[in-house]
């Protein structure tokens, strides 16, 4: 049976990717410097093998034959996801993949120093090459899928999402967000916030992070918490590895970072066990993934109820401070301040950072602008959305992110889609569980986890994203819940 | 050119084995319990691939063709080692490899509990199956190589070593070792040793271990120190991962354990960089490997000179104690006490543990005895060599080691061969560097490292073992240096 052969091939790929994933995690967390070349070569070798065995001609024969076979509903969903992955895998000639990987590595490597040096001219030269290759990639993918060029790239991260839809929700956002930011700032001016006094030892911060992970249901028998310079959630569903970084002056970032990654981790830890190894058992999309991390970080952890539960533990670990008063913590964790850096942005200004990148990268891939136009567009949009001036400050402007350096165009929308989905899930849960705030305040996340498990985690990729959203929440993606959430929390001082 | 194709295939295998090695290290040091099944499956998948691509028919065609090609001296040595590995790889049908892996896993798994329960009858049942399959393996390998059955297994760990040679050196050992043990015990009776007073925190023990590693030249940019329940030296030559375990009642075991593994690690870290990935760049044999760990542990670290250098650092880390007097430390670290357990044995009684295992496993593989004869033979030999009674105590007798549970017959001699080589190296160095004890006492291991690097590490597998020993020391393996070392240290109170 061809379906069987296909699914065995994907099981094999799953085993190889397990090793790649652990090797990648180790590279970021454990590996000493001199191990890097050998590691990179080993990873490249096995990645190459994975590409070869997933694009081998027999695989397409099996796929064609499997489409004629009688399959269960679940097998059909798996076949749909297999087909999607194979279509993406075969779209590009190996020469382009290699050229991209080389240009991306070169651009990213140089960027690390160029960013420090604010060297836009040097960076632009490499970026042009990356953009050129990404445009080729986009054209090939567009040809194969019938999508627009940008949509063909975005489809890698957000299957089924189109820029028409993104434009719709971002268009809405663009209407009210700049005003909201202004109003919140005016309102928060009168707040007097007490800053926690450090130092906060790494050991204590780790203890607090692990306490939060435990509270949020992370399974420590199936995962770990470690340190890396760029926090991420990696590993494999059976063994999820999340990382954070510590700054002894402040524990706020590591705490919220750990909680954010715990959201990703719980999704991975609760994908359907019986299907692991098959494409249908993978997380639905980057936006849905981000909806889990942001659900945990924004919907739960920055709420008044959760912080009131956490406050005593913070005092227990670091010793009592006036700053650990629950209401003070809440004001700290919901402070809105327009800034230049996306990864430091608060919940309210974050979407502005995403919108401006989306507009630029879309125009860039569609060929409407060139690399040299980026700084002016960046400056104009930062002014428009956040009232900030970045003229000449490239390193805190268009050179701040890693995404474009290696050609990951089409990814940025996932962040804000995730924030919107998260608000929609929480709205839904509030309707179904009127006691939810009380439960959070008591540190009882059982029913919330149950809801997420049933509606998101166990669904994996059995449904398409629109189907998933419809089944979980009874309607399509509706950005009004996100607006309502921000207004409730930041204007009306609720939640 | 066929040689080129062969060497590319081995380069590819090297990359895959890098990932297997890191995944194995992670499994022992980092992996949470629930990750084990997925990890085992992933490792099995890639191991299977490695076996397939190293026994594919084209490989043997390349090998035959390469033997007709004009090669450099070094390429010829590499081809010799390639041939050796391929010969070993193709000796066994896949069905036998699978049956062995299954029987070994079953026997080892059950042994963990059976050992605790002292359940010889239960263990013997599984062991019979393992022995049966190892005999089949030995017959096939013997047929292919023309060696005796036991020699064909030992050749996997000690290329070129034969039981005739082992019998020669062990025969010598058997003459004088039991007497020496008695004499040393009599002499040491009058010693009054002050025991260090714990607890010794893990953090402090780690600090001491890292200090010793640094002193012994371990490159921390190309390796790490971690914790595992069974200490080992793993990873890859570019990134050597060694492990230890800590007991807060005593730091002696972790310190000497770390130094032992550092010997393995320096060998790996200093294999010839330009040849990494090729069989000729691998360590020469398990015995030569053990000669490095035992050189560092026995020849250097348990010497009076080294301990006098280390004593101030021990006091600095743990605080001053009378027990940290250099002469007291020396007496502690050179105490001889016959015991039941091999891994706890001192330098003098250790070879007795090895000899008795060698005699039993050789007879077992050659079919001269059966599994049910093991306990009586064990009891007889323990009585003969160490004057100890193990009757009925299987768990501290013939059930104590992991080696036989998974069919690793032929490995034990490497331990004592290593101890003998180590003594031979040190003798040689003493001849060439009369100031060596002074250098050790000053913590200056530069010239010692240089000698090892030139004569052992950089030689990798370019020479056969007898050639290596001859070139390094000017003569063949000569067990009299080991005897001389033990008598000097333990009878004459030197070194």
TrEMBL record, chains A, B:
The organism's place on the tree of life at top rank: Bacteria
**E.C. no:** 3.4.17.19
Question: Which Pfam families does its entry note?
Answer: Peptidase_M32 (PF02074)
GO BP annotation list: proteolysis
Q: Which GO terms describe its molecular function?
A: metallocarboxypeptidase activity; zinc ion binding
Required co-factor? Zn(2+)
Looking up InterPro entries in the UniProt record yields: Peptidase_M32_Taq
Q: Does the keyword Zinc apply?
A: yes
Catalysed reactions listed for this entry? Release of a C-terminal amino acid with broad specificity, except for -Pro
- Record text on cofactor binding: Binds 1 zinc ion per subunit.
The record places the active site at 261 (proton donor/acceptor)
Q: Which residues cross the membrane?
A: none
Q: Does the keyword rRNA-binding apply?
A: no
Q: Which UniProt keywords apply?
A: Carboxypeptidase, Hydrolase, Metal-binding, Metalloprotease, Protease, Zinc
Protein residues bound to Zn(2+): 260, 264, 290
Q: Which family does it belong to?
A: Belongs to the peptidase M32 family.
Protein purpose:
Broad specificity carboxypetidase that releases amino acids sequentially from the C-terminus, including neutral, aromatic, polar and basic residues.
For this entry, the protein name equals Metal-dependent carboxypeptidase
Protein's organism: Oceanospirillum multiglobuliferum
Source lineage: Bacteria, Pseudomonadati, Pseudomonadota, Gammaproteobacteria, Oceanospirillales
């Amino acid at each position: 049976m061809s379906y069987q052969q296909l699914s065995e091939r994907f099981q094999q790929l799953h085993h190889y990717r397990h090793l790649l994933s652990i090797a990648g995690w180790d590279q970021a967390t454990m590996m000493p410097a001199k191990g890097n070349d050998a590691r990179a070569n080993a990873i490249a070798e096995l990645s190459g093998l994975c590409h070869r065995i997933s694009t081998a001609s027999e695989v397409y024969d099996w796929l064609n034959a499997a489409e004629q076979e009688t399959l269960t509903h679940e097998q059909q969903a798996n076949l749909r996801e297999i087909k999607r992955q194979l279509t993406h895998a075969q779209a590009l000639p190996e020469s382009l993949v290699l050229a991209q990987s080389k240009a991306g590595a070169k651009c990213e490597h140089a960027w690390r120093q160029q960013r420090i040096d604010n060297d836009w001219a040097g960076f632009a030269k490499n970026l042009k090459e990356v953009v050129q290759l990404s445009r080729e990639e986009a054209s090939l993918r567009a040809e194969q899928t019938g999508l627009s060029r940008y949509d063909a790239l975005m489809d890698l991260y957000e299957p089924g999402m189109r820029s028409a839809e993104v434009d719709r929700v971002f268009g809405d956002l663009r209407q009210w967000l700049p005003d909201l930011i202004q109003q919140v700032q005016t309102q928060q001016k009168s707040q007097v916030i007490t800053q926690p006094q450090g130092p906060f030892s790494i050991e204590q911060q780790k203890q607090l992070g692990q306490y939060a992970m435990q509270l949020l249901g992370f399974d420590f028998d199936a995962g770990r918490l470690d340190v890396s310079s760029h926090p991420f959630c990696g590993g494999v569903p059976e063994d999820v590895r999340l990382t954070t970084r510590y700054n002894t002056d402040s524990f706020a970032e590591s705490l919220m970072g750990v909680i954010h990654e715990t959201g990703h981790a719980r999704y991975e830890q609760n994908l359907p066990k019986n299907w692991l190894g098959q494409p249908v058992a993978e997380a639905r999309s980057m936006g849905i993934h981000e909806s889990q991390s942001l659900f945990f970080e924004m919907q739960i952890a920055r709420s008044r109820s959760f912080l009131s539960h956490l406050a005593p533990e913070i005092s227990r670990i670091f010793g009592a401070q006036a700053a650990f008063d629950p209401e003070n913590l809440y004001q700290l964790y919901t402070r809105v301040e327009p800034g230049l850096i996306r990864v430091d942005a608060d919940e309210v200004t974050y979407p502005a950072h995403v919108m401006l990148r989306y507009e630029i990268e879309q125009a860039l891939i569609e060929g409407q602008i060139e690399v040299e136009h980026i700084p002016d567009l960046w400056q104009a949009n930062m002014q428009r959305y956040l009232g900030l001036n970045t003229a000449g400050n490239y390193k805190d402007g268009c050179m701040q992110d890693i995404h474009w350096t290696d050609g990951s165009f089409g990814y940025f929308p996932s962040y804000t889609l995730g924030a919107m989905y998260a608000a929609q899930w929480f709205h839904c849960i509030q309707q179904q569980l009127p006691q939810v705030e009380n439960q959070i305040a008591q540190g009882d996340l059982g029913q919330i986890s149950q809801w997420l498990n049933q509606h998101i985690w166990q669904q994996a990729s059995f449904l398409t994203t629109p189907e998933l959203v419809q089944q979980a929440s009874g309607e399509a993606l509706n950005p009004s819940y996100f607006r309502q959430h921000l207004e409730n929390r930041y204007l009306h001082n609720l939640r």
